[in-house]
């Protein structure tokens, strides 16, 4: 037998492929808006502020009081404008090796500040105990089903500190395994609560926030509110000593009431592989609306630092010393919680 000429095989192959080919319509060129409209788009935020400012002036003259808070309006317009600009960055934007996008995180500050000032009306004391530069380990109580307490601690340092800086929170692997939430947490600077990650961040002179109670804190019942769980074996103290970082205790009041956990549906939690499945007055009865946190009144206190950076690194292996310092930090936070509960007039006022 003789082989068929290559040209015959090639033509047959081409015919076979052509029968399966799809006709692709080339994309139409993007319509370019006229220059006056493009100029109007760029000036829209300015025109919006001018219009609302004029309306605010007329309302103030008519009522004798401020009806529109122009500072809040400017923050909202700035937030929307920043989101539009960031959406144009494309895929080439800078993140660190933990996935932290500082520029995008700072663009969200108007939203978090609105929750801080207007929704939860947070009162913060002791902000001067947080260093303006250098490493430090913030250690706080943990509660509230979802980690809103970490968000408000981070916002407090941006809103109240004379030298605002980012706080890198260590969160439970539970939250890092949730779709969307895990992406958001990493993008805003959080990472898994592992000693190696803590050490790496402290060595970069970062502010690191840790919750020694872990999910036992966020998952405790409402009847046990504001009673701290054990702080484990004091691993955070050993890490702080090795990194030469002071420990700053932080007491948070208000987060226990945002999702009052009246029961834990343990069988459901086991089915989904979760440490707890909260039952609150609104969840799961109201569906996704039940995830809206209640507007409790918050207080945050930053206590004077525990000078763990003065210990020799070898002291981190002294378990007695480590547990002594851990108990000192825990007692400071617990006392701060009780003191701030006394200063709060009520749960929502």
Brief overview, please?
This protein is α/β, with parallel strands linked by helices. The protein has helices at residues 6-20, 35-63, 70-87, 102-107, 109-119, 148-160, 173-176, 181-187, 195-203, 215-218, 235-243, 266-272, 319-343, and strands spanning 123-125, 136-140, 167-171, 191-192, 207-210, 247-253, 263-264, 278-279, 299-302. The chain has a domain at 122-258 and 293-343: Glycerol-3-phosphate (1)-acyltransferase, CATH 3.40.1130.10.
Would you kindly provide a written description of the structure presented here, covering whatever features stand out?
The protein is an alpha/beta fold. The chain has a domain at 122-258 and 293-343: Glycerol-3-phosphate (1)-acyltransferase. 45% of the residues lie in helices and 10% in strands. It has 13 helices and 9 strands. The protein has helices spanning 6-20, 35-63, 70-87, 102-107, 109-119, 148-160, 173-176, 181-187, 195-203, 215-218, 235-243, 266-272, 319-343; strands at 123-125, 136-140, 167-171, 191-192, 207-210, 247-253, 263-264, 278-279, 299-302. It has a 7-stranded mixed beta sheet with strand order 1-9-6-2-5-3-4, with helices on both faces. A two-stranded antiparallel ribbon has the order 7-8. The protein is globular, with a radius of gyration of 27 Å. The protein starts with 5 loop residues before the first helix and ends in a 6-residue tail after the last helix. 30% of the residues are buried. Mean pLDDT is 86; it is low at 1-9.
């Amino acid at each position: 037998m003789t082989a068929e000429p290559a040209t015959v095989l090639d033509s047959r192959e081409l015919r076979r492929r052509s029968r399966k080919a799809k006709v692709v319509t080339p994309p139409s060129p993007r319509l370019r808006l006229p220059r006056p409209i493009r100029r109007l788009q760029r000036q829209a935020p300015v025109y919006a502020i001018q219009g609302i400012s004029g309306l605010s002036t007329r309302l103030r003259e008519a009522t004798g009081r401020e009806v529109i808070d122009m500072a809040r309006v400017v923050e909202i317009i700035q937030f929307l404008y920043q989101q539009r600009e960031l959406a144009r960055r494309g895929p080439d934007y800078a993140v660190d090796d933990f996935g932290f996008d500082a520029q995008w995180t700072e663009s969200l500050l108007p939203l978090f500040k609105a929750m801080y000032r207007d929704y939860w009306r947070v009162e913060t004391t002791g902000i001067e105990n947080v260093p303006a530069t250098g490493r430090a380990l913030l250690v706080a109580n943990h509660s509230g089903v979802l980690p809103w307490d970490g968000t408000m601690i981070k916002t407090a340092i941006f809103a109240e500190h004379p030298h605002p800086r980012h706080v890198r929170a260590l969160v439970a692997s539970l939250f890092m395994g949730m779709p969307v939430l895990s992406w958001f947490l990493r993008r805003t600077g959080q990472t898994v609560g592992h000693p190696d990650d803590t050490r790496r961040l402290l060595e970069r002179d970062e502010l690191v926030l840790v919750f020694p109670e872990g999910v036992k804190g966020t998952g405790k019942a409402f009847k046990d509110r504001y009673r701290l769980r054990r702080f484990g074996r004091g691993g955070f103290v050993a890490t702080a000593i090795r990194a030469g970082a002071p420990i700053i205790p932080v007491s948070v009041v208000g987060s226990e009431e945002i999702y009052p956990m009246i029961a834990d549906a343990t069988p459901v939690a086991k089915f989904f592989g979760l440490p707890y499945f909260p039952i609150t007055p609104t969840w799961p009865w109201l569906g996704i609306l039940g995830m809206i946190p209640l507007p409790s009144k918050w207080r945050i206190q930053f206590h004077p630092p525990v000078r763990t950076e003065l210990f020799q690194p070898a002291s981190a292996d002294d378990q007695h010393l480590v547990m002594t310092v851990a108990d000192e930090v825990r007692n400071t936070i617990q006392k701060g919680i009780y003191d701030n509960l006394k200063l709060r007039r009520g749960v929502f006022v």
